[in-house]
């Protein structure tokens, strides 16, 4: 069943050619899609259209069989964690709730549970400045999940992190996705990251989805990144992007 559908969507920033130009994208419930493409190809704009943060000039974005708009059933993680420095970690996680009302007891328990699942239970009363970059990214992920969204949108959330921390957070994201049954749409410029995370990679070129590639890996472990199956899947994505093969 399709959870999210973009149908012939077009969007142009004022005074500029279309950033998204006739894009079609269908995200099935429970799937993990990655949008991959060169800088400026329209990946982030597609994500913001999916979130309802931008309104298409033409075409339509349908979420849960209705036109998409900002709502609690969609979680968003930006490139920067965007934590409030004057708020403690637990208060940052609860922010989507406290913006509207006082959190209920079960919501507070859920927030603490998310921190525990991400290895941050001991940091709940700390401030963001006391955390590492990776820990701040985990807080941003917990905040996006606190309302139990059906769809989680992420815009290159790990791009600024070192390689080791990035791999740790990729595994955390996969675990949280399975644990919470969340559908994911993830933007990245990193082909290896996309192949490791996704079961569908959507290659974006010229403001539209040029091709969808199914990813079939036996398991998602560090070792699988160095196997033949992983290399073949990554090569398929590179071919669509007209990139040269990486020498063996």
The overall pLDDT average reads 91
* CATH topology (level 3) name of the largest domain: Rossmann fold
In order across it, which strands form the biggest sheet?
Answer: 6-7-8-3-9-10
- Please give the share of residues in helix: 25-40%
Look at the structure and give the CATH class of the largest domain.
Alpha Beta
Strand content: 15-25%
Shape: globular
- Count of individual helical segments: 8
Report on the biggest sheet.
6 strands, mixed
| CATH architecture identity of the largest domain | 3-Layer(aba) Sandwich
Provide the number of structural domains: 2
> How many strand segments?
10
The parts where pLDDT drops under 50 for at least 5 residues are: none
Category from helices, strands and their pairing: alpha/beta
Through-space gap between termini: 40 Å
The CATH homologous superfamily of the largest domain = P-loop containing nucleotide triphosphate hydrolases
Instruction: Tell me the series of helices and strands, N- to C-terminal.
Output: EEEHEEEHHHHEHEHEEH
Radius of gyration: 18 Å
Task: Explain how this protein is built.
By secondary structure, the chain is of the alpha/beta class. It has 2 domains: 2-73 and 150-243, Rossmann fold (3-Layer(aba) Sandwich); 82-148, no CATH class. The chain has helices at 43-51, 89-93, 95-98, 105-117, 133-145, 163-180, 191-197, 228-240, and strands at residues 2-11, 20-28, 32-36, 58-63, 66-67, 74-77, 151-155, 183-188, 200-205, 208-214. The strands form 2 sheets. The protein has a 6-stranded mixed beta sheet, sandwiched between helices. A 4-stranded antiparallel beta sheet has the order 2-1-4-5, with helices on one face. Strand 9 (200-205) and strand 10 (208-214) form a beta hairpin. The mean pLDDT is 91.
